Amino acid sequence: MLEPLRRIVHEVSAAHNLAEALALIVDRVKPAMQADVCSVYLTDPETGEHVLMETDGLRPSAVGRVRLLPNQGLVGLVASRAEPINLDNASGHPHFQFIASTGEAPFHGFLGVPIIRRGTTLGVLVVQQREARRYTGDEESFLATLAAQLAGSISLAEVRQRLESLDTGTLIGTVFLEGVASTRGLGIGEAVVVFPDTALDSVPDKRVSDPEAEIKRFNKAVTTEVAELHKLSDQLADVLSASDRALFDAYALLLSSDSLVEGTVARIRQGIWAPAALRHTISEFADVFEEMDDAYLADRAADIRDLGRRLLQRLQRTAGREREYPEHTVLMGEEISVSQFLEVPQGQLVGLVSVNGTSASHVALLARGLSIPAVFGLQSAPLERLNGRQVVVDGYSARVCVHPGPTLIEEYRRLAEEEAELSQELESLLDQPAVTTDGHYYRLLANAGLHADVAAARDRHAHGIGLYRSELHFYLRDSFPGEDEQTATYRRVLQTMAPAPVMLRTLDVGGDKPLPYYPIEEANPFLGWRGIRISLDQTDIFKTQLRAMLRASAVHPNMGIMFPMISCISELTKALAVLHDAHNELIEDGIQINFPQVGIMVEVPSAAYMIGTLARMVDFIAIGSNDLTQYILAVDRSNVRVAQLYDSLHPAVLFTLNHVCRQAHAATCPVSVCGEMAGDPAGALALMGMGIDSFSMSLGNLLKIKWVIRSFSYEEARGLLRQALQMDSAQQVRAQMNRALDERGLGGLVRAGH
Ligand code: PEP
Ligand code: MG
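A: This is the predicted complex of the input protein with phosphoenolpyruvate.
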């Protein structure tokens, strides 16, 4: 049953609109289930009614007319219980409701399964048969699995249809795309859809002004690819058998056959850019093969897709890396890499939208650092239709508006102005100390990773850089930077902030931010080779970085070094040994350098519980609450499916942070928090209560947090923390903290605008 399932899902996900998707579903499911009827009911989100949207087997005239109340009939029961109902004789069930217009009287066997997407029931998929027979367990799970997988495709088709109606003028208004997470703020601009070089399905639709030049570009890619395939085949002559090498020849043959090339060229001639024309042709071809009953031929579909990816890569290469970005760019993609983000010239990026990822993923942190609003976990986003459209990134309610009308834009502008007013009011705090009403002082530091961040932090009177993410510099290049280059970079950073302290974190790659030139393939990247683990295994790279940091500090001694992802004592011992080696080597070379302040990031639960020993081995502790939260709660910080479970205000996280803080202080070791929690007003209240020494955050939040600190007493914050530690959930803690902020007149920090 797996193959038909995969095939149906694939076909439906490629449907251009809802009608096509639903027609495909009933057409394919009915024979696969050997049913006499297959119907799809969709639930009207406003009325809750279940509308018969498509059927094969019931009267076609009933489509669109039959509307069942939320709890009416067996369909209503499937939806309200959100579970399958499998009956040998439907009419014998007390919930059965006879509806004459459908002509369903002669059918007995009934199986209905809910279509659920991220917790919301979208509708019900039903199969019926004349025979009075229950469907088997296997059949039931097949239909339930299918419905679960179709849910995404149905919503996608619905949005595609709405966008199409907008284009043809049959729909006036805006299409809203809902996300699950966001970083605060509003961005209005033109969508630029980015995609990995090999993701053919994510290629957006675009028009070209000079189709003939585009055809030339495509033909050149084909010729080069054919030559490359022949070359590969020859090179591998000694290694592969003739039959294995046949694949290359088959690819080359496919490319030499006119149909694939001509189909693409014909599309380009209509003004479509080559990658999208290729996407259409490859998908058409692959579908034809996939539908073949012969298993060998059906498998060739994968080869065709692979060939498509190779050609796409080649086309991308000929396009050159320099892209043109509109003045107000909203970057969109299935997943946006740190390098794609950094490729947009500073000042032109006004928003970020990603289907995957969450507000805790690294690209989100970058966005927040540069005050760029972002929406993540976009549900049902037909990316291929969005390129070039005007969009609003609404980071307050985690949604994206496509084609916003003038009234909506006006409304958003008003909101943006309110936000600007709030920031303006906060400017008066710039020169004020971060002190509570009862005289407790905190240090407010900035997180940085690019030189521009550092200069801005200095200009905004940050007390220093609490976290310098050194890896960002590594993303701007095509290979590892050498010692001299790194020295110059760190020297500039230290000099910009001097004499204020700068905590340089050693390379923290892996997890959700592998380096493009150092790919790491792992099943569980967050539990794998990342942070200090890589540095300790690649001591050459590690030592080069440490030497560069030390050399930079020879002139500007305002430097601290910290190690990310420490999970045991021996890792710290080894890291310190490499640092001592690097230091000794430099001294031997005659360079006078003081040994720097050294700290660790506490991001792993094991480090939190070994903190007593660790704190005695270092000069400072920096809590990385982003990672610590993901590891305590076992919630991948960049996975949208579980984004609602990720919250640093979870009592278990607070309990751990409080423990770290007390133990470190007992060892007279200062503590800072440099995860996003430090810049979140509710999180900051809890951290104040723990008595941490410094907050390190995205610069845009600095004055907001100063306002929080200056509005409460230390004793009040301690009281709020005590209560939070007794609570059952992050929601309760958040509500309590937000209430306290609101009552103190700081509601503007919690809601959009004032
Ligand atoms: C953290 O984990 O909280 C942290 C500051 O490090 P990063 O977000 O860069 O992983
Ligand atoms: Mg981290």
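The longest helix spans residues 137-168. The chain has four domains: 2-168, 175-195+327-407, 200-319, 438-749.
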